[in-house]
Amino acid sequence: MKRRDFIKLLGGTVAGWPFTASAQQITRMRRIGALMNIAEDDPQSITWASAFRRGLEEQGWTLDVDLQIEYRWANNENLYRRFAQELIALAPDVVLAVSGSSATALQEVTRTIPIVFMGTSDPVNRRLVASMKQPGGNITGFIEFESSIGAKWLELLKQIAPNMTRVAVVRDPTRFAWRGLVTAIEKAAPSFGLEVNPVDARDVTEMERIIATFAGGSNGGLIVTPSAFSAIFRERIIALAARHKLPAIYFSRFFVTDGGLSSYAPDTVDQYSRAAGYVDRILKGEKPADMPVQAPTKFELVINLRTAERIDLTIPAGVLAVADQVIK
Pick the residue with more confidence: 100 or 155? Predict the structure, then answer.
């Protein structure tokens, strides 16, 4: 080979090296863990997992090409710790925690692997982060509710059922993060002329007994606040409200699509998309410590007219006019 041809060949090879290395770096498989808070066969699991995947795809990632997602489906509080350990053992690049409980379980296992949480209202008091603006550790994410939304639920339910004078509030007394919601409801109640009756959500039979007793009175309503218990047993709660003809408002739209009367909540699909954006930024080198915890920006009011008809309730036209979705 002539010297001139050899140099041209060598030059072409060297010029190709950075491109090849860059291509290998771009296509390196990254791994995400996801600790969910419902069962894998729950109809909502597909909706939520799909929303998260689409959010990542919008950032340029392709599942099974440069990205893998390892899910664990914890429909029982006792499974969080076990599944957190399983996911961290896989050495993921980042983990999505879809509740405050799952975030806490992951935090107990690792202080180095980045975690993006959803579904908690008070990450500072839960000691997940040092502050909302400067999380300071390996965890950041998105709060689901601020305490003030409790008063909004009460206001909307009173608009939906103007004759209501009493309201039962289903709560999980073991969850400190949600106490602010119930406190906000109790503080707002006198301005609407309402009496508040807390109902502890720990045992289905006991909850059904208390609500049946409550429904024995007149002009009652129901507010269901966030908890894993309420989500898992939502069909029982929805059926209970229908049986006793109690106007009800729930903390998530999936209660309404499953037959509940109404919900006012952050757009869950939007939350998953935003969480995917944070995961993307972490995969590209940003640190959770410097990424502020964010509040919801998109809320939706959903009304089920079929359920209203079933409980002999006429929804005021003004409420229907402002609803984001009306199920007919």
Answer: 155
Given a contact cutoff of 8 angstroms between Cβ atoms, the answer to whether 251 and 225 are in contact is yes
- The identity of residue 303, as a single letter, is I
Distance CA 143, CA 3 (A): 66
The CA-to-CA distance between both ends of the chain, in Å, stands at 80
Instruction: Indicate whether 237 pLDDT > 60.
Output: yes
163-to-142, 182, 309, 316 alpha-carbon distances in Å: 36, 21, 16, 12
Amino acid identity for residue 160 in this structure: I
Instruction: Identify the bridge partners of residue 262 per DSSP, sorted by sequence position.
Output: 249, 303
For 18, residues 6+ apart whose C-beta sits below 8 A from its C-beta are none
**Neighbour order of strands in the sheet with 94-97:** 67-73, 30-36, 94-97, 115-120, 139-143
Domain 24-145+267-298: top CATH class: alpha beta
Q: Give me the CATH topology for the region 149-250.
A: Rossmann fold (3.40.50)
Res. 176 pLDDT band, cuts 50 70 90: low
Q: How much is the pTM?
A: 0.80
Residue 74 has pLDDT above 80, yes or no: yes
Tokens of 106: 């992951």
Structure confidence by residue, pLDDT tens digits, 212-232: 999 999 999 999 998 878 888
Query: Where residue 20 falls among pLDDT bands split at 50, 70, 90?
Result: very low
Question: Which residues have a Cβ under 8 Å from the Cβ of 109 and sit 6 or more positions away?
Answer: 81, 84, 85, 88
The residues, any chain, with a CB within 8 Å of residue 169's CB and separated by 6 or more, are: 182, 185, 196, 197, 198, 199, 222, 223, 225
Sequence ranges of the domains in the chain: 24-145+267-298, 149-250
Locate 92 and state its tokens.
Answer: 């993921």
pLDDT at 177: 61
Helical spans, DSSP H, in 233-296 = 234-243, 253-257, 268-283
Do 24-145+267-298 and 149-250 fold alike per CATH? Answer: yes
Q: Which residues, including other chains, have CB under 8 Å from residue 243's CB and lie 6 or more apart?
A: none
Find, among 250, 301, 296, 300, the residue nearest to 273 by Cα: 296
